TrEMBL record:
This is RNA helicase. Residues 1-27, 174-205 are annotated as: Disordered. Belongs to the DEAD box helicase family. DEAH subfamily. SMART domains: DEXDc (SM00487), HA2 (SM00847), HELICc (SM00490). It comes from Artemisia annua.
Length: 705
């Protein structure tokens, strides 16, 4: 029926036009819109510019478009915008593609570890700061970029800090090259990514590529913290411009007493707001995926007990490993009569701005990396936020009108908070940074021009770790081939080493799976009320040898399931059934999906490196020996009281309750992570023979007798 079809089309067109109009209006009303011309002018005049503006003023989504329209991509150059978080890179790129009315991956794209959505025509490219660092390995002049915007610089993640140092250097090199006369061509280390001017063949048969005169690199540092001084000093007095924000008053409410159970307090507050307060969405800050998923099921349970009319609450999680179509859901307005409650990690503090938020619930905690140079062991710990973070969080409630922020702690505690957060470089294991910088030709880490120098002891310890892993030579240079191979893999040094060794141990197939499964948070998902039921189901995967092998079993079972359900040309159906299978087996479908993606990527990586991929089949002894040979620093011995003593530093820890080895009789284990809450826990644990340590890691352990 043609007439109906036309009607539908018209309808769609109208919807499309309406949405486009609405977006245009939103864009025009952003605080940054009134200074578009001035910003473009300032970027033209200054090679380095600092832009400071409140969260939500439009920095991340608008500035790249202004620069594009201002002609900064005219010579084919790309505007690169780095984000500390994957989620931000993805969601913002999607939004900007929509604003520009283009397909994602064309003019506007993003690139994050394990996912590249860009093409030859991409001119506005959002990416993680870590990814740009990796690109610098291949293209030391970052010659494809005309502008680089380092976004969220106030977060001061370790990757941002390294990037700032590197960019400063690239900028110098590029301006030298642009000042050189036209005849002085600059030769690049890797011609593949640079513009060719002359592609004559050299005698060795390699294409010799000479680089066209490079334009100076425009560098923009964007930050939500109002203090731009630090950045300005670091960049030799670079100019800073402030974008006026718009902030409505936010009522701050505290609890009378400290809360003992944060999850419970958050749950009660969500329900209270939902039942007693006027319309407006709720944003809750939680420390990680696990807390988010616990609260999600608690709220669902409690909602069911309410009268039907009061059940109109839409619960939306937001964390890094969430598939991106789910991440985007937080930006869509809820249906009429519904209230959204967004359960987010720190992502929502400044990285992404969600429209419609009127209520913020802030338990005052954040998960951070913590490193003790004494032990050389890094752990994830949950700590109190700084004052600056608490203010950022409450600010999220006052973007579109007056709002309320419920801090789940007493007012007296706020006064005692640190003013601002310590940069991550001061509290993390630096071995990855050292590896990356060494690969970029920076051998003297202590002498590197960091905005804030890392601790000397932490540097020494991290160097020692790399040395023990065989990545560095006695002269602190990258070893060949191990160090170079490790630097090429987008993983932590320990994991890279495990893969390299596994090819020698004949178990690379299995190690690829294990490393991928360890890269995601919590493969098993157990709702509180189903604790007992889940135990029995999960047991069917569990290996008496430990969690690494249990994860391997889960992955293999998943492959087997997909194989069995494979019908002709219907992968979708198998995937759909897999979701059901995951649910029945208390497996976190999103985490498993993510692990499968990671597996594919790192498999490609090791294939390209020429590592031999073979399988040890059911001979998992080899796999355990390989784990011992790679994670030897994370070895622990059993104490008479059943706890474990970490050999590297004497720290006492318990096996985490979620581990299959929680009641193990084994004398010696290796673990993947150490988490500190009220107690020390080791997670992802595997049983080993302590004699293996002396045999496989003699650089670290010797037999006394
Ligand atoms: O970077 P900054 O915090 O200054 O702001 P932004 O991220 O550019 O956000 C500008 C506006 O775009 C905000 O009002 C957001 O709510 C909106 N936005 C959106 O509606 N959907 C997205 N996926 C991203 C941003
Ligand atoms: Mg932003």
């Amino acid at each position: 029926m043609p007439s109906m079809a036309t009607g539908n089309n018209n309808n769609n067109n109208n919807q499309f036009v309406n949405r486009k109009n609405k977006i245009d209006q939103q864009r025009k009303s952003l605080p940054i819109a009134s200074v578009e011309k001035r910003l473009v002018e300032e970027v033209r005049k200054n090679d380095t510019l600092i832009i400071v503006g409140e969260t939500g003023s439009g920095k991340t989504t608008q500035l790249p478009q202004y620069l594009f329209n201002g002609g900064f991509c005219r010579d084919g150059g790309i505007i690169g915008i780095t984000q500390p978080r994957r989620v931000a890179a993805v969601t913002v790129a999607k939004r900007v593609a929509e604003e520009c009315g283009v397909e994602l991956g064309q003019k506007v794209g993003y690139s994050i570890r394990f996912e590249d959505v860009t093409s030859m025509s991409t001119r506005i490219k959002y990416m993680t700061d870590g990814l740009l660092l990796r690109e610098a390995l291949l293209d030391p002049y970052l010659s494809r970029y005309s502008v680089i915007v380092v976004d969220e610089a106030h977060e001061r993640t370790v990757q941002t800090d390294v990037l700032l140092g590197l960019l400063k250097d690239v900028q110098k090199k590029r301006s030298r090259s642009s000042n050189a006369s036209n005849n002085d061509h600059v030769k690049s280390n890797n011609g593949a990514l640079v513009k060719e001017e002359n592609n004559g063949q050299t005698s060795s048969g390699f294409k010799q590529q000479l680089v066209k005169k490079l334009n100076p690199l425009k560098l923009i540092i964007m930050s939500a913290s109002l203090d731009a001084r630090g950045f300005s000093e670091y960049f030799s007095g670079a100019k800073a411009v402030h974008v006026q924000g718009r902030q409505f008053p936010v009522d701050i409410l505290y609890t009378a007493q400290p809360e003992t159970d944060c999850l419970d307090a958050a749950l009660v507050t969500i329900l209270q707001i939902h039942l007693d307060e006027g319309p407006g969405d709720i944003l809750v800050f939680l420390s990680g995926q696990e807390e988010i998923e616990s609260i999600e099921s608690l709220v669902r349970e409690n909602l069911k007990k309410l009268p039907e009319a009061k059940q109109k609450l839409l619960i939306l999680p937001l964390f890094s490993s969430l598939p991106s179509e789910k991440q985007m859901k937080v930006f869509t307005p809820a249906a009429v009569g519904f209230r959204k409650v967004i359960l987010a990690t720190n992502i929502a503090e400044t990285s992404v701005t969600i429209p419609g938020i009127k209520y913020v619930i802030d338990p005052g905690l954040v998960k951070v990396r913590s490193y003790s140079p004494d032990s050389g062991i890094e752990s994830l710990i949950v700590v109190k936020t700084s004052k600056a973070q608490a203010l950022q969080r409450s600010g999220r409630a006052g973007r579109e009108g007056p709002g309320k922020c419920f801090r789940l702690y007493p007012e007296s505690r706020f006064e005692g908070l640190d003013d601002s957060t310590v940069p991550e470089i001061k509290r993390c294991n630096l071995s990855n940074v050292i590896l990356q910088l060494s690969a970029l030709g920076v051998d003297d880490i202590i002498g590197f021009d960091f905005m804030e120098k890392p601790d000397r002891m932490a540097v020494i310890k991290s160097l020692e770790l790399l040395y023990l892993l065989g990545a560095l030579t006695d002269e602190k240079k990258l070893s060949d081939p191990i160090g170079h191979q490790m630097a090429r893999l987008p993983l932590e040094p320990n994991d890279s080493k495990a893969l390299i060794l596994a090819s020698q141990f004949g178990c690379l197939e299995e190690m690829l799976i294990v490393v991928s499964m360890l890269s995601v948070e919590s493969i098993f998902y157990v709702p509180r009320e189903k604790l007992e039921e889940s135990r029995a189901v999960i047991k069917s995967f569990s290996s008496p040898d430990g969690d690494h092998l249990t994860l391997l079993n889960v992955y293999r079972a998943c492959l087997e399931f997909l194989e069995k359900n494979k019908t002709e040309n219907s992968n979708d159906k198998a995937e759909k059934n897999l979701r059901r299978w995951c649910k029945d087996n208390f497996i976190n479908n999103r985490s498993l999906k993510h692990a499968r993606d990671i597996y594919k990527q790192i498999r490609e990586n090791v294939e390209r490196m020429g590592l031999k991929i073979s399988s040890c089949g059911d001979d998992t002894l080899q796999l355990r020996r390989c784990l011992a040979a790679s994670y030897f620093l994370n070895a622990a011995l059993k104490q008479p009281d059943g706890t474990f003593r970490v050999l590297a530093n004497g720290q006492i820890a318990e096996v985490h309750p979620t581990s299959v080895l929680r009641r193990t009789k084994s004398e010696c284990i290796i673990f993947y992570n150490l988490v500190q809450t009220t107690r020390n826990y080791v997670r992802n644990v595997t049983r080993i023979d302590y004699l293996w340590l002396a045999e496989l890691a003699p650089q670290c352990y010797a037999l006394k007798d």
